[in-house]
Amino acid sequence: MTAPTRHYLDFERPIAELEAKIDELSKLSEAAGAGAMDGEMETMRLRAGQLRREAYANLDAWQKTQVARHPQRPHFVDYLGRLIDEFVELRGDRKFADDQAIVGGLGRFRGQAVVVMGHEKGADTTSRLRHNFGMARPEGYRKAVRLMDMAEQFNLPVLTFVDTAGAYPGVGAEERGQSEAIARSTERGLTLGVPSIATVTGEGGSGGAIALAAANRVLILEHSIYSVISPEGCASILWRDGARAKDAAEAMKITAEDLIALKIVDRIVPEPAGGAHSDPGAAIKAVGDAIEDELHKLSNLGPDELRKQRADRFYAIGRAGLA
Predict the structure, then answer these.
(1) Considering all CA atoms of the chain, what is the largest pairwise distance in Å, rounded to the nearest integer?
(2) 191 membership: H or E segment, kind and range
(3) CATH classification at residue 158
(4) 292: exposed, middle or buried (Cβ count in 10 Å: 0-12, 13-18, 19+)
(5) 167 and 49 fall within a common domain
(6) By three-state DSSP, how is residue 236 classified?
(7) What is the mean pLDDT of the chain?
(8) Are residues 314 and 245 located together in one domain of the fold?
(9) For the chain, N or C: smaller number of CB within 10 Å?
(10) Considering its fold, how many domains does the chain have in total?
(11) In terms of domains, do 172 and 287 share one?
């Protein structure tokens, strides 16, 4: 099978140019005979790796936003495939329809039965349309509530994976109670009597994100973002100029480092050099290890203790904002 074409971001142009030269040398090497240019290619590969490590060690907020949105970044279905065994998808909100922007069901995480759900953006045109680019409608959040109810009924931990630009803003969604559905999902997350762990794997945008992230522990990948509004939306409101999204990203404090300092998230999961998209397997394993560790820490807490821990966590964020 042909490997997918690598998508390069603007700040990766020097790396792209170097890797293009490596590809050219590889083709020339095939024509010249095996091993003819191995030394040169190895030197260039080492240089490309160094450039990638240097670039990703010094990303600004806007560059991290681009990485968080990278089309080849692992999606929820990738985490499902590598972390969850015996997955059984549960569909529909039992009221209106099934929203595939949020996928969820039952499965086993490293041997433990769990309820798992997350935003799915899709990987190609067909799947992106089916999943509505990860932007859920009201029935998606009502499905999430249904799954959380089931988790509490059967005493199963809840694992959520957040990757959305925000809830779907269409007229139909508003007519069917979008804001109420988000509020109910957030409320249900806060009142769960079972352990809950949310992981921001890409974009954590607005109420669409918090609806699945009202958890005991909120983890975030190193180059993910989490914000009340997109940088473009913020720039349009503050300066009436969406082109100033980079300025907004810097001002909004949306990176993992900012969020851990503000105590909005609890743990940063390191990514491979070059971002999660450069080595999805390693990134997904790191997330799984972090979730397993956090689940172990929560395993001895009873329902009332879990609710109190969650309430204290979110009250502290609000108090810090008023200070």
Answers:
(1) 71
(2) helix 178-191
(3) 3.90.226.10
(4) middle
(5) no
(6) helix
(7) 90
(8) yes
(9) N
(10) 2
(11) yes
Q: Which amino acid is at 48?
A: A
Handedness of CA 308, 310, 311, 314 (dihedral sign): positive
Please check whether residues 176 and 294 belong to one and the same domain. yes
Tallying the residues shown for the chain, one arrives at 323
Give the tokens for residue 46.
């080492």
Place of tokens 């010249």: 32
Q: pLDDT tens digit string along 44-77?
A: 788 877 888 888 888 999 999 999 999 999 999 9
Cα(168)–Cα(210) distance, rounded to whole angstroms? 14
Please count the other Cβ atoms lying within 10 Å of the Cβ belonging to residue 205.
27
Whole-number Å distance between alpha carbons of 91 and 75: 19
| Structural domain that includes position 30 | 17-58
pLDDT grade for 2, boundaries at 50, 70 and 90: very low
Q: Does residue 7 lie in a domain region?
A: no
Q: Using an 8 Å Cβ cutoff, are 76 and 36 in contact?
A: no
Asked if 148 and 44 sit in the same domain, the reply is no
**182 vs 56, 69, 76, 154, 319, CA distance in Å?**
34, 23, 20, 23, 22
- Say what the pTM is: 0.90
Q: Does 181 share its domain with 201?
A: yes
DSSP conformation class of 3:
P
Cα–Cα distance, 191 to 317 (Å, whole number): 17
